[in-house]
Amino acid sequence: MSPAYCDGIDRRAFLRVGSLAGLSLAEILRLQSARAADPPARPAPPKKDINCIFVFLIGGMAHQDLWDPKPDSPAEIRGDFSPIKTAVPGLFVSDILPHVSGVTDSLAILRGLTHGDPDHTAGYHVMMTGAHPGFGGSFNRNKHDNNVHPSLGSMVAKVGGGNGSLPPYISVPNFLNSGGPAFLGASCAPFVIESDPASPEFSVRDIVLPEGVASDRSVRRQQALREVNRLEREAERISKTVQSADIFQEKAYNLMTSQRAKEAFDITRESEATRQAYGMTSLGQCCLLGRRLVEAGCRFVSVENGHWDTHRKNTMSLRELLVPSLDRGLAALVTDLKQRGLFDSTLVVVTTEFGRTPRINQMAGRDHWPQAFSIVMAGAGLKAGHVIGATDSQAAYVTDRPVTPPDMAATVLKILGIDPEIVVQTPAGRPVQLAGGGKPVFELF
Question: Which residues have a Cβ under 8 Å from the Cβ of 391 and sit 6 or more positions away?
Answer without folding.
Answer: 63, 68, 111, 112, 372, 397, 398, 399
